[in-house]
Amino acid sequence: MSISPTSNAQIQMGGGAPDPNAQWLQAQLQLRAELKFDTRIEDGNTFVVIEDPVRSKYFQIGVSEFEFIASLDGQRTTEEVLAQLHANGHDTIREQQAVTISQWLAQSNLLISESTESTDRLKTQVRSLNSQTLISKINPISFKVNLFNPNHLLSAAQPYFNWMFSKWFFVVWLVGFVWAVQIAATQWTELGIASQGILSGTSWISLLVFWLLLKVVHEFAHGISCKRFGGEVPEAGVLFLLFTPMAFVNVTSMWRFSSRWQRIIVAAAGMYVELFVSFVALIVWANTEGLTADIAYNVFLMASVTTILFNANPLMRFDGYFILSDLLKVPNLYAKGTGWFGDRIKHLFLGTEKTPNLYAPQEGRVVKVYGSMAFFWKISISVGLIIAASVMFNGAGLILGAIGVVLWFGLPLMKQYKMHFSGEAQKPINRGRAIISCLCAALLVGALFWVLKAPPTKSAPAVVQFADETILRSAADGFVDEVLIKSGDAVVAGQPLLSLRNENLTLEVDALVDEIKAKTIQHRIYRQQNELGLAKVEEESLTGLKKQLAEKREQAAGLVVRSPLTGFVFARNMQHMLGSFVSQGDELMTVAQRKTKEIVVSVDQLDLESIQLAEDKPLRVALPGMALFESTISRIDPRASNHPTHPSLCADAGGPLPLKPGSKDDNDAQPDMLLLSPRFDVLVTLDDEVSKSLHSGQRGRVFFKARTQSLGSYLFLAASDWLKTQIDQAILVAP
User: Is the pTM for the entire model greater than 0.85?
Assistant: First the structure.
């Protein structure tokens, strides 16, 4: 959904021009004749909505700002208009605010100028302001493409889709919501299992298709709801974020609505309909199997998780933001908040003059809290997108990342430099305050790297496993036909545990037996006929067939899974295995000789020195549902390995360790998965009482003493390691 920002006029500009204010104060400005104005009263507050019918754009300003711009007649200068207002007792607008409003009017193409002199003088400034906006629009990391005018199409469709916003559909929506919550609560484990491998193979193609279809439905709901209340939808197109397409429609005409609840309904319509689709998809997933269930799960994932994370996030200028802004009754909350925060940060550290507050007194607390959060969120999102762009598209990604740095950080910093540091600075810095800030920053850096120490402990992921356990894997593809034991049963070596069914494998064995019989007869015939050359060929063919038969019979024998040792067997969800399909190499269950358990800790190479120092000291172990307890190290493996210690620690099983594809053998359907970086295995002993209360595969963390280092180096290394991991993961999933 595309919504033009509405605000008090001075906010729209977001800052002043780099040239002196005097040029704007001497300008003779006049509003365009075709502009329309409408008064809106909400909760005792009066606003004026400006409609630009030519470009279908809407802006909201306060009464005092409207009194100022309505007095611009093209004959008097801005300074003269301001003086006349002050003489009449309207002294709310000050010079700086008048300059900012004038700049915003020019940049928004809302005025004309009758004075040739003022036009020539301001042309360069307006062109500079508009060029900055144009540059932001052509950012290759995020850009928008208008495609067509959907207004007539939506007008024709609207009578047939009004039911989406009826009371009876709301009741159906609530029923679907309750049903979906019940499914998620009772089948949470199955949902997690279904998510494994969601991006493997070519499934990302289907995810992209579902994403596009859902976003079309999302924007269609926005358009229908806007038309339902009498609005217009003049634009529809595609927004590209890292070249990922997302549909959008322009529903800025909703700012014409006098009821904020109507505006909230329009802003929420896309999420409302898309979430209902996710409820239906989850219900279908829970009641179907195979391809239908897979498709339903993908739709559920796209329509729920992505909608909540992106569209509902109020810190981003999507649906959630506009809903929050109307609920709080604070127009243009984002611009007010980030503008206030940036201005106060500059005043605090550089001593620049404060800009007058651009919000009403009753809005103060909300604006300040929201502005602080949105400011840092915007920086984190920008950095994240730049990093993602840098590691995608091979070498072109570096170019995209560099462009993103220039557009999102370079140009704003240059603008701030001209405003505060250049010879023609509009708001010069206080040099004394700036020097003190630099000294404080230097002292803080010094304290981080030479005074303050890092936390004395580190942690590493750990998993509980049985001592001397053996993981049984499927020797062949097949369906689980019979489960002969229960988890926890004692077994003896050679005892059948479960059987698989694979008719194709049985047919292949029978076919090879028949072919060998035929080849044997033919070989005898050639020998009797003294055709020694042909007999030799048949003999070689028989040798190859017998080898294939031996392999197939070995796989067929593997359809009956037997215990390799005497002990006991265990597996999670063993009761759900019957009838399921398993591939060759899939984990089936585990057999252990004794019920004593141990903890395996996966330690990063950087922490090896610290863990060695703690070898003769007790470690603290944290496991879900248990109080913190201490234990000791029994063994440290001398070599690091990329092979996962335990499947529960891997990211594809919900663990913390990211994976990458390993080398692929000719006989393997898929390559082995390896850890992104080598890690050491550390074994921690458990006493009998603690061992009995734990189950194999239970994840936790182990805390150990760290070597002494400064807090600064600790944070730097931690950030570097995190960034490297993110880049490595982005490279792995990049097309």
Answer: no
